[in-house]
Amino acid sequence: MRHYKAYCFDLDGTVYRGDQGIESAVAFIQKLQREGIEPFYVTNNAAKTPQQIQQKLATLGIEAPLHHIYSSALVTATYIEQHFPQVKVQVIGSDGIRVALKEKGIHITNDVDVSVVIMGLDHQVDYTKLATACIAIQNGAKLIGTNGDIKFPTEQGFVPANGSFVQLVASVADVEPIFIGKPSPIMLEAIATEHHYCKNDMVMIGDNYQTDILCGIRFGCDTVHVNTGVTSTAQVRLQEKQPTYCMNSLSDWE
């Protein structure tokens, strides 16, 4: 297999499941670091801030610099700043998206009179939050999801991810949501631009074909699918566009 300058790792289902690290991935990342290669972390999870992601990786034995952590929350905040300047937004989400928006100076309110409804994973989501979002969108607000993931793996099994809640609201309000995270190549484009890599220097590694692998394919870099999370190798083999490599786990990398 080729050697790369920029190894871009998905997190949920690739590096860890819930709070449990995937041993083969942690060992592979540590091996890269011993060789002087600092990986990047490209996650659709908008619930955590980069600092919280950094802390979680540290508990698994991975020391990750903040400027190598790219989340859909950061990309979404930049998108709102560029496309909806000076507007009020309603947010369903956790620390990651709320902090990212506040750092851009974006006005967050619980009112239904807003221009945009932004949805990221919210572990405290309830009927009232979802109903308020539906009403705001029916009043003309745009619906933007930090990502469209339907499920993600935990130690016990699969649980609902942000996309499942976005689709619920979209169905009620009868709109098509805008999704910002993977498979959009925006985060990989940011890594290439900010760290001066060519596409041939980069590889996207992930477990979810519909997000991670398609992100890499759309960006134009090599991709590695690992059979440790959402999409099985058997399911990947049925897809028209194939990843560059498929492996059971990162311990198979040679």
TrEMBL record:
<dbReference type="InterPro" id="IPR036412">
    <property type="entry name" value="HAD-like_sf"/>
</dbReference>
<dbReference type="GO" id="GO:0005737">
    <property type="term" value="C:cytoplasm"/>
</dbReference>
<keyword id="KW-0479">Metal-binding</keyword>
<dbReference type="GO" id="GO:0016791">
    <property type="term" value="F:phosphatase activity"/>
</dbReference>
<feature type="binding site">
    <location>
        <position position="207"/>
    </location>
    <ligand>
        <name>Mg(2+)</name>
    </ligand>
</feature>
<comment type="similarity">
    <text>Belongs to the HAD-like hydrolase superfamily. NagD family.</text>
</comment>
<feature type="active site" description="Nucleophile">
    <location>
        <position position="10"/>
    </location>
</feature>
<protein>
    <submittedName>
        <fullName>TIGR01457 family HAD-type hydrolase</fullName>
    </submittedName>
</protein>
<dbReference type="InterPro" id="IPR006354">
    <property type="entry name" value="HAD-SF_hydro_IIA_hyp1"/>
</dbReference>
<feature type="binding site">
    <location>
        <position position="10"/>
    </location>
    <ligand>
        <name>Mg(2+)</name>
    </ligand>
</feature>
<keyword id="KW-0378">Hydrolase</keyword>
<dbReference type="InterPro" id="IPR023214">
    <property type="entry name" value="HAD_sf"/>
</dbReference>
<dbReference type="Pfam" id="PF13344">
    <property type="entry name" value="Hydrolase_6"/>
</dbReference>
<dbReference type="GO" id="GO:0046872">
    <property type="term" value="F:metal ion binding"/>
</dbReference>
<dbReference type="Pfam" id="PF13242">
    <property type="entry name" value="Hydrolase_like"/>
</dbReference>
<dbReference type="InterPro" id="IPR006357">
    <property type="entry name" value="HAD-SF_hydro_IIA"/>
</dbReference>
<feature type="binding site">
    <location>
        <position position="12"/>
    </location>
    <ligand>
        <name>Mg(2+)</name>
    </ligand>
</feature>
<feature type="active site" description="Proton donor">
    <location>
        <position position="12"/>
    </location>
</feature>
<feature type="binding site">
    <location>
        <position position="182"/>
    </location>
    <ligand>
        <name>substrate</name>
    </ligand>
</feature>
<keyword id="KW-0460">Magnesium</keyword>
